[in-house]
Structure formats: C-alpha cells, structure tokens
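[audit] Reproducing an earlier prediction to check determinism. Same input, same settings, fresh worker. If the tokens differ from the archived copy the diff job will pick it up downstream; this log only records the rerun itself.
[audit] input (331 residues):
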Amino acid sequence: MAFGLIAVTVVIVFVDRNGYRDSNDAAHHYGINLVDAIYYSTVTLSTTGYGDIAPVSSTARLINAFVITPLRVAFLVLLIGTTLELVAAQGRRTFRIARWRQSMNNHVVIVGYGTKGRSAVETLVNNGTERDLIVVVDQGSQAVSEAHADGLAVVTGDATRREVLQRAGVAEAKQVIITTDRDDSNVLATLTTRQLNADAWIVASVREHENASLMKQSGANSVITSSDAVGRLLGLSSMSPTLGTVMEDLLTYGEGLEVAERDLLVSEVGQQPQSLPDQVIAVVRDEVVHHYFDPVVTQLARGDRLVVVRPAKELPWAPRPGTHGEETEEE
C-alpha cells in the first residue's frame, strides 16, 4: 500500500512535471524528468523535504495542497499504524506469556499445532479448559502464527529438545498432548516429557500401528493411531453406511451424540449401569475401565465414574439435566 501511494504521487507529479523547478538546474529551467518525480515523491511523502525540487506553478501548488498532502498523511498513518499494530501484537504476546508463566501449573501442553493439535485445542476449550492454561510448542512459522491468532501461549522450538519443553513448563504440566507428523519425533518428545514429569498424563499420536507399543514404552499413557482410526472408519462406512454415519457423529464435536465421562450421582450408587437415564458404555473403577456388562460393575459403587453417550448439547462433565439439586457421589 505504501508503494502504491508513492506510485500514485509519482504519476501525479510527472504529469504536471512542467510546474516544478529543480534548484540544482543551473539554467533554472522549468520541468523535471521521471527520476526527479520519483525522488520528489519519496522525500515529500516521507516528510524529508530537502527543498531542491519545488512546485512553482499555481496548478502544481494546488495539487500539492489538496492531493499530495492527503497522500502524505495517508502514507504516514499507514506506516505509523502498521508499526503500532506490530508493537501492540508483540506486547499482547509478551503479556500473555508472562501471565501464563505466573500461573504455570497444571496446564496443558500441546506439542504440534497442525490439524490434530488444533482439533485437540478446540475440544479442550469447548469442554471448559481455559485458553490461558494451554501452551503450544511448535517450530513452524505458520503454526506459531495460527496459535498466536487463536489466543494461545506459544513456545517456538523443536519439541524433541529438552530446553524447549522446559520453557513450555512440561515439568509442571497436568497433561501433555503430542501430535507432530513424525512418529520418531513423537517418541523422543514423549521420552523427554516423561523424564521431566513423571506424573503428567501423556497422550500421543502415531501414524503407524507398529509404533504404538514403542510409544507406550516411551511413557505415553494413551496412544492414538491415526492411520488405524481412519482405516476402521473407512471400513465401517463401506460395510455399513449407517454405522459409519453414527461413528462420524460421535467423532464430530457439538453435533448429535457425544461420548462423555461424568461423576456418579448419589442416587445412582448401588444401581445397575443399564438402569440409568444415560446410555452407559463403560464404568471406571479404581482407574480400570470396565464394560457396562462386566460382572465386576453389576452394581455401581462409590468412586465409580461413568462413560456415557449423551446429546452433544449437554456438558460432558455435568450431571444429566433433570437431576437438579442432586450431588455427585464425591460431593
């Protein structure tokens, strides 16, 4: 835009070139050439104003007063505004990172801000996690820009390097989600994360199934195989379009049905999983996941958590509507 304003000014000055005079011209001839027009336009718009070339005709002076002066103002506003915008953006980033560092505890670290990383952040935010508690680690300029634009604190660097993960506060993190596009990078990042934090819940993605066991041995609590998941969904959709549609619905956030985990209500203690209003598909007891038909969980007990299928409009962590005033079993 700045070059466009200069070009417009050059054209205006050159068209009226006979109305200008160059004081360096010994013969004091009226008129300037194209190079003079470019020179005059740049020093005029930048308010340098050496005074060696000046408008002398009435037309040239009127054009300078009512056309070039507004262009000069627009040029300065453009440059100053861009500078202030950059300074303000950098200030916001610095403030966000400083605020994050002050409360850096039990936060979530996202390693890799590609398609999977962005989807993970969106799911976390939609399920109640504050953006201030999410830190992104990536070394790609586009990913870093997108993370900043999404209002997230960002640590720029290679997540396989120990100092980069330390800057992200992995040692104090509650959860770490590792989603780079390379399985070897994911394994190394998982190993380093587990060394820095023995208690963090680490979820990692792998592209190939044969790397899942290696990821588990590296310290990941949960491993998602992207190629297998996509392949299963493709196979289900080909064999049963209806089943494929249901599975796609469950995987799509905010639409139709959702899989959620919630606390057990006081009134539900001692009941069978099948008798609850929610469609219970699993029961978590003593950190072990049981299917709803498992004899071990025939009767629900204190400390159980339920994995249910419910409408997407209901909060995944909240008791089902209709149980107003009821306390969870833990409460």
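[audit] rerun output stored. Observation attached for the diff report: The longest strand covers residues 257-263.
[audit] end
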